[in-house]
Amino acid sequence: MTDSIRTAADAVRELGSLPMPVGPDPQPTPARLSPQREAEIAARVEAATKGPWGFYDGDTYADVAADLQMTSRASYSYRQKIAQLEDENYWDDPAHEDHDEQRAPEQMGANAEFIAHAREDVPALLAELAAVRAERDEARRMLNATARLAGRLENRVNRAAAERDEAKTTLREACEQVAERDHEIGGLHAEVARLKAELATKRDEIADDIHRAELPVFAETENPVLVAKTVRAIDWRLAARGSAAPYWVARTEAGR
Question: How many structural domains compose the chain?
Fold first, then answer.
């Protein structure tokens, strides 16, 4: 159990900070739209008429070009129609009249510049849009990969936490069992101490009983020297057993 917890914890520590997800080999980064270029495009958009724009389909380009060389009222109408859609007012500002001869060249010049740069501006804007979308897709991919990694880490942490809780439960139960054994051992120690005390108080009595059981019976006519030797031999055996009796007196069978 402990090894399982250690392994899970070490795995989380080894991962460290979230790694940066890697994908295919990065593609060359296209030239991005600079702030200056973006400001120029925005200025051209602001200067041109609002639109929506259409196209002039009344005459051929040659006829229109020839008419634009004229200064008549009709030539101004052509210039209006080139920059308007169907019946839309040429001017987006309601304060202007349809025939504002003073501002017509200025507005036509702004529209012409807008159209002339459209071939460059539109691809640049599309490229910038593609780059931004690529960044968004890469960020989304990295976010998803990080979310998956976070999910795996969370699963590991949850498993480690469950193993930890199980180990804590096992350890608590073991501690309770040890406490119970300690209590039982304490009771046994007390019982042993009681028995030792009881044995100490009865040692002399027990030794006397042993002596009486082992002391031989002598006839009154037995040789006193032999009797004394026999008693001393018994006394030595009793002393080896821990008896406190200093000596024993032989008794006749009548005295037993």
Answer: 2
